[in-house]
Design brief:
5-stranded mixed beta sheet, Immunoglobulin-like, 474 residues, mainly beta, 33 strands, 3 helices, Hydrolase, hydrolase, single chain
């Protein structure tokens, strides 16, 4: 061994979004001048820089390089101790490569983003908004969710009321709002409410929404019935008060003269003449058939219109697959900007494009044997102030064998950054992996059946990136 190394300090601490520096001392214990190349390795290598990257050291002398660690303030910077290493390769003796190791502790931070989907719900007897909770911190989030409003006008059924979210993941909380009093007649009324996300030892994070309660019957119908009832009562009262007295003046005059009225004799009806039988017109011979030699009339043949081939959707593909092979299946296709719909892919195959810079606008998903599927798209937000996208509304779902669509392929529709998806009632398992611009394929992610969440998030939260391809399995 012709090399001696020392890390000063061997253990360091850094805050996400900040930076820290560690000195690496290298001593050439050989007998020739050698040049050393330095390369960071390990999980935190993307956040590590070495200055200088090469160092020429004379025999018996010592050189120093600086390792600068700058983890981003994102969920990828996992809180806690993170080992790191630097590969040192001598030019003259490459077989004597040395890899000194150290430890970098990343401090934890918490960041939560919440969004009601949709923020305003309407209904006569209930409303069903969903609360999306994103854990943008680097530690596991544990919180409870509760609802309140002024005047205690609503009751809240929240499921799940307690959530646990891993860093970089999202969860959806289903909420059912029920008014305590029904509006039988009248116009709609707005009832503001608040859903609070409470973490231990912190101030609750409030998310405000509006429930628009509609009347059971429209107000104009109540007015109409009231007016109609009043007119009916008025008519009956007037009829009773002013009922006409009808008498025969001719009968009274005859009685005064002592003349009795006799019934009239039956009149003899005149015979009705029988109409003459209609004369039948002579039959005319039909015109000769047109053999195509004449040049008259507009009896040309109709042009046959070409019929457009039916679109092959995800539901068509999963139906064919289920007929060939029993079990659980999922098929999907992507609407790619500039290319349109891709062919359906099934059970872990790729839908979309890879490394072509073309974003996905919309996804078409269908399942078989999973009791249906539901999902929502996380899209680019041009008005973002924190570099993140947002969820588009509404949440959409479909039973087995039926197409489900998330996202939009309208003109100027936003690019998809990610998605949330589940199958069945949350007890079935679904896995996904997504290909993101400049990041490549992300790791495989699966939901945890029976955990109470039943949703899996794929893609990215970053506004400047976009989704290029997806794979699903059930």
């Amino acid at each position: 061994m012709s090399l001696w190394t020392s890390l000063e300090p061997a253990s360091a601490t850094v805050d996400p979004g900040g930076s820290t520096t560690v000195r690496l001392r290298v001593r050439n214990t050989g007998d020739v001048v050698d040049e050393y190349r330095f390369e960071p390795v390990g999980d935190i290598a993307p956040w590590t820089t070495v200055e200088p990257q090469t160092l020429r050291i004379y025999p018996g002398t010592t050189g120093t390089v600086e390792l600068r660690f700058a983890p981003p303030r994102t969920p990828d910077a996992t809180a806690g101790p993170n080992p790191y290493a630097v590969r040192i390769t001598p030019t003259e003796h490459p077989e004597a490569t040395t890899v000194p190791e150290g430890n970098l502790t990343i401090t934890p931070f918490t960041e939560i983003r919440t969004e009601l989907v949709p923020p305003t719900v309407k209904g006569r007897f209930r409303g069903r908004p969903r609360l999306a909770v994103d854990n943008l911190g680097n530690t596991k989030l544990t919180a409870s969710v509760s609802g309140s409003d002024n005047g205690d006008q609503l009751s809240y059924d929240i499921h799940p009321s307690n959530i646990q979210i891993e860093p970089g993941r999202a969860a959806f909380v289903k909420t059912t709002l029920k008014p305590r009093q029904i509006i039988w007649f009248g116009s709609k009324e707005e009832r503001p409410y608040t859903l609070a996300v409470q973490r231990s030892g912190t101030v609750p994070l409030d998310v405000e929404g509006t429930y628009v309660q509609r009347g059971f019957l429209p107000g104009w119908l109540a007015t109409f019935l009231g007016v109609f009832l009043a007119l009916a009562i008025t008519f009956v009262m007037l009829w009773i008060a002013y009922k006409p007295q009808v008498r025969s003046a001719a009968t009274e005059k005859l009685q005064e003269a002592g003349v009795s009225t006799l019934p009239p004799s039956p009149s003899v009806s005149a015979p009705v003449p029988t109409p003459p039988a209609p004369t039948q017109a002579p039959e005319q011979s039909p015109p000769p058939a047109n053999d195509g030699g004449g040049g008259g009339g507009g009896g040309g043949s109709e042009e046959k219109k070409e019929s457009k081939a039916p679109e092959d959707t995800a539901a068509d593909a999963v139906t064919r697959l289920a007929a060939e092979k029993s079990g659980r299946h999922i098929c999907y296709r992507a609407y790619v900007e500039g290319d349109g719909w891709t062919d359906p892919a099934c059970d872990g195959k790729t839908a979309g494009t890879v490394d072509k810079g073309k974003p996905i606008k919309k996804l078409n998903i269908a399942v078989s044997g999973t009791k249906g599927t539901a999902g929502s798209a996380f899209v680019h937000d041009p008005a973002s102030t924190n570099g993140r996208g947002h969820y588009n509304a509404p949440w959409s779902g479909a039973p087995d064998g039926v197409d489900n669509y998330i996202g939009s392929r309208k003109k100027d529709a936003p690019d998809m950054l990610g998605f949330v998806i589940n199958v069945g009632d949350g007890t079935n398992r679904i896995c996904q992996t997504a290909h993101v611009r400049d990041e490549g394929w992300h790791g495989l992610g699966c939901d945890e059946p029976g955990s109470g969440e039943g949703f899996i998030f794929g893609g990215t939260l970053t506004n400047s990136l976009w989704l290029e391809a997806v794979r699903f399995t059930v």
